[in-house]
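Quick note —
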Amino acid sequence: MSNSTPATGHEKKKSKGKRLPCSPSRVLHIRQIPNEVTGAEVVSLGLPFGKVTNLLMLRGKGQAFLEMASIDAAVSMVNYYAPATPHLHHQPVYIQYSKYKELRTDNQHNQAIFSKFGFVLRIIMFHKNNQFQSLLQYSDAMNAYYAKMSLDGHCIYTGCCTLRIEFSKLANLTVKYNNDKSRDFTRIDLPFGDGQRTVETSIPFATQNTIFPSYTGPPGFAPALGFPQGPSVLPVPGALGPLMVTTSAAPGHMTIPDIPGNSVLLVSNLNPEAITPYGLFILFGVYGDVHRVKIMFKKRGIALVQMADATQAQLAINYLNGQRLYGRVMHATLSKYQTIQLPREGQEDKGLTKDYSNSPLHRFKNPCSKNFQNIFPPSATLHLSNIPSSATVDDLKNLFTSKGSTVKGFKFFQKDCKMALIQLGSVEEAVHALIELHNHDFGENQHLRVSFSKSSI
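Predicted structure written out below.
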């Protein structure tokens, strides 16, 4: 995440009101934004074209700077909207390349220890019970989970200020003032005020993404958590909602947040000729531990998938709803059922209901697993690991082509020949290959591990 502000709040203009053309940049300048438009609505303009990595709203000027993850994504966005001007709240808005190549990071951002785990939306700091404590709200519940897993029990300074982190019961933070005690990074228009702030608990969310960190240290000595200067990336539509982290848990104690909601998914528009319970188990298992799968006996294009908890269910929906699978666009949503019932003895099922609750293929059964840090959306590039030393580039390419994949690129990791990246012809091909080849047996008890990669070759 990068937090920054351009040197000026507007682009220079030519005389006569015309603007200087800018060369392509991953930072886009958006003008004539209505006052009531939210940051999330601005972000939604860029989401169809790729990942949005930063946003700066200049509300008083009706402008914003939107930073895309790549220049290609920014070019696609500008080219798409050039002949079809987008509208926000029924008003046309205008998009062009910014002269800024990135929204640069302020030096103080280096002190923001929680930001490397995700987008921090809001922070409130206070003293209670002779402890310095704070509430942090992330844009995504899994980010808070990673932060808790990585930072709980760790020291901010060497041998000093030990963090105690737990999940808060609060759904959302409301910040009235941006100052040294509270800050809302999605609102640059808030006054400095006198430090008074409130916590809003009445807004319902599908999950709780708020963490509450405290620390053990000298009374009255507050650690430099560091407020990044400038706004952070706003939550995007479909995100799990805000998350708070608390820091009062015992060192090393790890608990998954108690998130209300259903863990059973209804998956529809499946290809009945190709789909199997095992295929759904492997695919949805990328985003959580699948306990049970049931393909409907009379409607083979519909299935139920039961995840380990509601957080994983929401994560699977976010990443897999709308994904093409065996020639059809799959739909995933929460089911009305709370659990998948196994067939009764003698009940005709034809192997369409499977229990995977004790499967050795679960990726997330170890709370310290690195898999938690490597959850990415389906992509055409797959990350391969646990490759035997005897396997060659041709061996692996041939393995994937034997399953119908088109191999566009392959690269072993320089520092670890047991891992590699393989780029296939499409995202759908990669999804099929992952289902087919995750846990592929090379012999001698060596099984291939396959996941989606965040990068391409």
